[in-house]
Amino acid sequence: MSYRIPEALIGEENARLAAAQAEDYAALGRRLRRAGVDIEAITARVAAFAVAVPTWGVGTGGTRFARFPGPGEPRGIFDKLEDCATIHQLTRATPTCSPHFPWDKVDDYRELAEFAAGLGVGFDAVNSNTFQDQPGQTLSYKFGSLSHSQKAVRDQAVAHNVECIEIGEKLGSKALTVWIADGSNFPGQSNLDRVFNWYLESMGEVYARLPGDWRVFLEHKLNEPAFYSTVISDWGTSLMAAQALGPKAHCLVDLGHHAPNVNIEQIVSRLIRAGRLAGFHFNDSKYGDDDLDTGSIDPFRLFRVFNELVDASARGAAGFDPAYMLDQSHNVTDPIESLMVSAMETQRAYAQALIVDREALAGAQDANDVMLAHRILKAGFVTDVSPILAEARLRNGGAIDPIAVYRASNYRKVKAKERPAVAGSSSGIV
Ligand code: RM4
Ligand code: MN
Ligand code: MN
């Protein structure tokens, strides 16, 4: 049996912090009550909030220059699931993980599903991968996949996506996420219209294979690895594709995949209005698709995104059912610590957005009282909601301070012994 953090250790650490937590929670409750906010209602919503962990995120990431592997890294999907389960055990915010194929391929998916269930982890959207060539693959994706100029390559990419759906069905997933690296590096390399058409044809075939209760999440990205044009480059292209494909197609927003300085929360608002917001790949970004930890660079932007989500939910926007996932690359931190903190940062932004007095905000907006409107919105962001997050964890059986318990457990050290390093580990450079 491999090591799991003992529940008793969580209990001991919680006991040490319980009095201070109770005091802070009561004080925040009194403060919020003065503003007409019921802390219990916010805590209940935070406790019900869930974000999926990417299986590729629990391995150490890297850049195109180097990867510096850490001790006790997961050697394959079974180890990755253990790490995902540990993140959920302490934070109680990540009951599912989002697998990536073929990185997470196994022979027996029933065994994998049972193993995950035994750890208390479920499966969120399955991710296909036609941005790399795999050993033994017949045709290369060097010049594209679903939008390749040659039909045989497009067919191979369609077949891979269909296989991902079939695997996902065995795992209990309900969505396929498709991100393609297709695009061009030189003006003239490809015809901008023809490649989009090929993409739509190929995705039409994938779409036709979606089970009745499934959705497909189209993930756009401005650039990289293609540096002149990317086939699914922005939310406009993504929305055009989703609308052409049909009602099961939705647009996924990865926070690092946009043009610099673009107003992401407005994109979110437009996609909600169109009834096509698939959900998110949360991360943070300074320059591009940096895949930094969620909320580490611009927590105010994350808050503004959640403000749109809370607003949409409050007004009962039609078809609003976003899937929340993290998508990060941890190059210099312990991935488990990063993912725990990131999950908690999404909860923080959610709680802050829930605190905003929406009626007062609408009133100030209608009266064109700009400063008051701004201050009402900002009041949510500047509130330290940490006691609410800790309380939600505590009530769900998690840790008041997940990082403290994780460090006290020596989990990584124990895993370093349990998981001797293997050459060519499946944790790629992402
Ligand atoms: C991409 C994109 C996808 C992820 C890969 C690993 O940039 O964000 O979601 O699957 O990276
Ligand atoms: Mn992504
Ligand atoms: Mn990305």
Count of individual beta strands:
11
Question: What's the helix count?
Answer: 15
The end-to-end span amounts to 30 Å
- The overall pLDDT, averaged over residues, is 97
Shape: globular
Short structural description:
The protein is of the alpha/beta class. It has helices at 7-34, 39-47, 77-91, 109-119, 151-171, 192-208, 235-245, 264-273, 299-314, 335-355, 358-366, 370-381, 386-395, 402-409, 411-418, and strands spanning 53-54, 96-98, 122-123, 126-127, 175-178, 183-184, 215-219, 229-230, 249-254, 277-282, 323-326.
Task: Give an overview in words.
- By secondary structure, the protein is an alpha/beta fold.
- 48% of the residues lie in helices and 9% in strands.
- It is built from 15 helices and eleven strands.
- The strands form three sheets. The chain has a six-stranded parallel β-sheet.
- Strand 9, helix 8 (264-273) and strand 10 form a beta-alpha-beta unit.
- Helix 1 packs across helix 13 (386-395), helix 5 (151-171) runs parallel beside helix 6 (192-208) and helix 10 packs antiparallel against helix 12 (370-381).
- The longest helix is centred in the N-terminal third of the chain and has 28 residues, at 7-34.
- It is globular and about 65 Å long.
- The mean pLDDT is 97.
- The structure holds beta-L-rhamnopyranose (RM4) and manganese (II) ion (MN) (2 copies).
- One manganese (II) ion (MN) binds at residues 254, 256-257, 289, 291, 327.
Brief descriptors of the model:
430 residues, alpha/beta, 48% helix, globular, binds beta-L-rhamnopyranose, binds manganese (II) ion
